[in-house]
């Protein structure tokens, strides 16, 4: 009888039902490593820009492009800053920072309702917009003589100039932001039964927050730019007074020191406002995905 050879094969083990399909990968979480690297790269590029400026400054001073030693080296100016911070210059920084923050905040607080009024009511916009543009074009330094006449030479007079500088810039930015809100959001709220007040508080106000924060950043910059004009009003302290007194005695390194400190203070305040803006308007990024 012939031998029958039975071929034996492997059987696949019973593994049960197949696993459920994996859900598709969602978008990367915000604030992940990629965003951190982008911020680091941006910070390094910004630092490189400052270093390049200091290098050009050093070369220009060493080559004596400006004669008679009227352009100090960066090292000389930074030494003035370092030694001056321990000899009263830090107090001037604090005084000027307090003036700018307090009075610019007052100007912003007074300007936001006016911006809402212009942006929301066409009649008010037609009546007041030319006046806003007229006064916005007037430089704060031109008002110094009138401010001295009407408000004296005290702290209030300096504050009025800073408040004036911030007020009209904020009005324009808030007004443009509210006027630019798309009608579809207003119509959607009205379709759901919202009255005019609810549309203003639940639609217009949230959408205006980014513009208010932008106005705050712009107004702070204008406030620091107007600081010297404000401290022309018989100020004995503050960075504007430091620059004026140093200029009277041709102390050029101290003039540069005051200018650099104003720029650094404005840069720090702008960074703080940008940080706050990112936290407050996080919904805006999600809504644009």
Largest sheet: none
Strand content: under 5%
Could you tell me the mean pLDDT? 81
What is the CATH topology assignment? Answer: MetI-like fold
CATH superfamily: MetI-like
Label the structural class.
mainly alpha
Gyration radius from CA atoms, angstroms: 30 Å
Structure in words:
It holds the Pfam family BPD_transp_1. It comes from Polymorphospora lycopeni. InterPro entries: MetI-like (IPR000515), MetI-like_sf (IPR035906). Belongs to the binding-protein-dependent transport system permease family. By secondary structure, the protein is mainly alpha-helical. It is built from eleven helices and no strands. It has helices at about 35-60, 75-120, 120-135, 145-150, 155-180, 185-190, 195-225, 225-230, 240-250, 250-280, 280-285. α2 runs antiparallel to α7. The protein is globular. Mean pLDDT is about 80; it is low at about 1-15 and about 25-30.
Q: Which features characterize this protein?
A:
11 helices; single chain; 289 residues; mainly alpha; disordered N terminus
